[in-house]
Design brief:
The chain is of the alpha/beta class. The longest helix has 33 residues. It has a single domain, classed as Rossmann fold. Helix 9 links the parallel strand 6 and strand 7. It contains 12 helices and 8 strands. Strands 3-4-2-5-1-6-7-8 form an 8-stranded mixed β-sheet, sandwiched between helices. InterPro entries: ArsA/GET3_ATPase-like, ATPase_ArsA/GET3, P-loop_NTPase. This is ATPase. GO terms for molecular function: ATP binding; ATP hydrolysis activity.
Length: 326
């Protein structure tokens, strides 16, 4: 089946990052649904052990195995995987050394935890390696198992080091399976098949972290994707400009909502609310202007009135597709 044209044609690994509180996991889940729409098969990967995917899809905690969790519009499937670094290391020992049984014994002895503690980068390589393997995996007929993989990645402040850690590990292990594994991961995450997307709010701190993150990725020669502006409030354009409180008080009184005394009080309260909305709208315009300097595609996702429940995920997925991100 041929995919429709999008801003990210050719991208097979979508990495989603963002400052805490911006809705990173929710956007990653909605992006997976959007990418799966129309009959495609997408894997949504979680790497932080928070069971965030299970929460946004209202599911029990996910085991360390790939399983179908949702059907996208048009019949596509979303599968999910919550990566456990310890299990990933056991797979690694089996794959390269045939030591799975020995690895289980080492786990009981705490050696696996010890190894990933003295070499923290190894843990990240194992996690990104599992994701990269899913990107490249093919079935017996040679067809790719997944059309696309979406990774719910660590927060913005850590994502560049997380994705670039293969460079450090490769420097420590110049030959052998560890070096081969690190090179394979780097070959995926630094390629045009990957795009690292940022999730932000129209607020000063997350916007600045996004801009800093984009700059860090570019300095590390990692592929920058787009910016998803989450929780965007609709603003009434008629609220721009000065506001006449006396005129509003007359309107309140004419509507039968108060007499001469409390109509003025109501009008003052309404005027204060309108002024606050005007102030926020101006701040948001400033932050939008700042995001333009990143020179990457931007997508605006609405603030969900009922919260990010399952119905909300599908609403966000539709917004992502409508804007050409999937």
């Amino acid at each position: 089946m041929r995919s429709r044209d999008t801003d990210w044609d050719g991208v097979r690994l979508h990495v989603v990052t963002g400052k805490g509180g911006t809705g990173k996991t929710t956007v990653a889940a909605a992006l997976a649904l959007a990418l799966a729409a129309g009959g495609r098969k997408v894997l949504l990967v979680e790497v932080e052990g928070r069971q965030g995917i299970a929460q946004v899809f209202d599911l029990p905690p996910l085991p360390y195995e790939e399983r179908k969790i949702a059907v996208a519009p048009g019949g596509g499937d979303v599968h999910a995987l919550a990566i456990d670094p310890e299990e990933a290391m056991l797979e690694y020992l089996e794959m390269f050394y045939g030591l799975k049984r020995m690895g289980k014994a080492l786990t009981k002895m705490g050696v696996v935890d010890f190894a990933t503690t003295i070499a923290p980068g190894l843990r990240d390589v194992l996690v990104t390696g599992k994701t990269s393997e899913a990107v490249r995996r093919r079935d017996r007929t040679g067809k790719r198992v997944y059309d696309t993989v979406v990774m719910d990645a660590p927060p913005t402040g850590r994502v560049t080091r997380f994705l670039n850690v293969t460079q450090e590990v490769a420097g420590l292990a110049r030959v052998g399976p560890v070096r081969t594994h690190a090179d394979m991961v780097r070959g995926v995450v630094a390629s045009p098949e990957t795009a690292v997307h940022f999730v932000t709010l129209l607020e000063e701190m997350p916007v600045q972290e996004t801009l800093d993150g984009v700059a860090e990725l570019r300095a590390a020669k990692l592929p920058v994707g787009g910016i998803f502006i989450n929780m965007v409030r609709s603003v009434d354009p008629t609220l721009d400009g000065p506001f006449d409180v006396a005129e509003l008080a007359m309107g309140v009184k004419a509507a039968g909502l108060g007499d001469d005394g409390n109509a003025a009080v109501i009008a003052e309260a309404l005027a204060g609310e309108v002024t606050e909305q005007q102030r926020r709208a101006e701040l948001e315009r400033t932050e939008r202007d700042a995001l333009e300097t990143a020179a990457v595609p931007r997508y605006e996702l609405p603030l969900l009135a009922d919260g990010a429940d399952l119905a909300g995920l599908y609403e966000l997925a539709e917004a992502i597709r409508t804007q050409g991100a999937a």
